Amino acid sequence: MSQEIISEIHLTLFSDIKYLEVVQSVSDSFSSLAGLEGEDAYWVGLSIREAVTNAILHGNKDDSSAPVKLSFRQASDKLIVTVKDQGEGVDESKIPDPLNPDNLLKPGGRGIFLVKSFMDNVFFNTPEEGGNELVMEKFFKEGVKK
Amino acid sequence: MKIETRTVNGVTILDVSGKITLAEGSADIRKSVRALLDAGRTNILLNLGDVKYIDSSGIGELVSSFTTVTNKGGKLKLLNLTLKLRELLAITKLLTVFESFDNEDEAVKSFS
Fold this sequence. Notes:
The structure holds 2 protein chains of 2 kinds.
Chain A: E1 5-14, H1 20-34, H2 38-59, E2 67-75, E3 78-85, H3 111-118, E4 121-125, E5 132-139
Helix pairs in contact in A: 1-2, 2-3
Chain B: E1 2-8, E2 11-20, H1 27-38, E3 43-54, H2 56-71, E4 75-79, H3 83-91, E5 100-101, H4 104-109
Parallel strand pairs in B: 2-3, 3-4, 4-5
Antiparallel strand pairs in B: 1-2
Helix pairs in contact in B: 1-2
């Protein structure tokens, strides 16, 4: 995956939901700097928030000492956000479909679904150094990129 | 998040404002609803017009509240969905589950 990165920000936080507002602020600021606006910026922010919530609660099992590492990258045509936790990885085939009638009234299980609904590309990586990484990409609409 | 309670023609209306997120204590809605059920108030209308932000945890709390009230033989309906919340409920197919209204009078009348 070689592409020119115009700007990037890295953020590391301990696993505590109190940092979600910080993540949201950084996400909103970076989206704005990258030229992402309006609805797109809003849903990207929600997607990142959902990804970090999952990393804290499921990946790091709410262990406050376990770090969550985020990177925000701006390429010429898209925003690329990665969220890395210390978990063992995700078997996507085992993620229940929240739209299945059997799952519709379950209180949880919609986080990754929302991420996939609002981002253009979403995939999981298992880095060599361990942990689990979720990569999310959002393409800029024509004329928005800088 | 702030929740204020009032009653109109036997329907308990919860005026919810602020953010319904994990970090902001989204479970407060479920707790408020359970307290109403314990007090025998089973017709509940959630006014979400002043909700500024909601995440999947908040959506889950709405679902939990709905199933809790339904299992007790009551009714829980939604009032004044914001465009963002309506979109979230649409893509999660929950608009097919919740009865929602844009007019309070109509919503209150629907319980009778």
